[in-house]
Amino acid sequence: MSLFVLPASQDSLSKYVEVQEGAPSVLLPCNYSKEIDTVKWSRFDLNPTTVHERRINGDDLQEQNQQFKGRTFMRPDALDSLDFSLTLKELQPSDSGVYICSIIDKKEETPLTEVQLYVRGQLPWSRSFS
Fold first, then answer.
1. Helix segments in the chain, DSSP class H
2. In whole angstroms, what is the distance from residue 65 CA to residue 7 CA?
3. What is the pTM of this model?
4. CA distance linking residue 60 with residue 116, whole number of Å
5. Which GO terms describe its cellular component (predicted)?
6. Helix, strand, coil: what percent of the chain each, to 5?
7. How many beta carbons lie within 10 A of that of residue 4, not counting itself?
């Protein structure tokens, strides 16, 4: 498995992550410096847009897009550690897209990080590169 995390520019909050289809998991990075009540990962090209949501009392997956059911994970102490990185398991090409990590405070959603994930498809074993 190869994983590349590259910032789009030095002063940008955008990151690029590339992984091979079938990889067991990938970590989408997101950190913040202050305590919050809710963090939300979204993909705005999907309906519903929610990939994963964590509140003080635990995960809130009521609005989670079914494409991600049972495949997302955040550290149990994410809100305490301020590490809101999301683990996405059982990767497939349809997981490619732009993921937004946001904080929600008093019903206002503020984006922190944007991660462009690209899941490369498997190469056919019978193909020769000569």
1. 78-81
2. 27
3. 0.83
4. 23
5. external side of plasma membrane
6. 10, 45, 45
7. 10
Domain boundaries, the chain: 4-120
Is residue 68 within 8 A of residue 53, CB to CB? The reply is no
pLDDT band at 14 (very low <50, low <70, confident <90, very high): confident
Strand blocks (E) in 1-130: 4-7, 14-20, 25-28, 38-42, 50-55, 58-59, 72-73, 86-89, 97-105, 108-120
Torsions phi, psi for 10 (to 5 deg): -65, -35
Residue the block writes with tokens 């922190």:
112
Under 8 Å between Cβ of 102 and 42: yes
CATH class of the domain defined by 4-120: mainly beta
Interval 76-93: pLDDT, tens: 999 999 999 999 999 999
Q: Can you list the pairs that 64-69 forms with residues at least 24 positions away whose Cβ atoms lie under 8 Å?
A: 67/94, 67/95
**Bridge partner list, 93:** none
Say how far apart CA 87 and CA 116 lie, in whole Å.
14
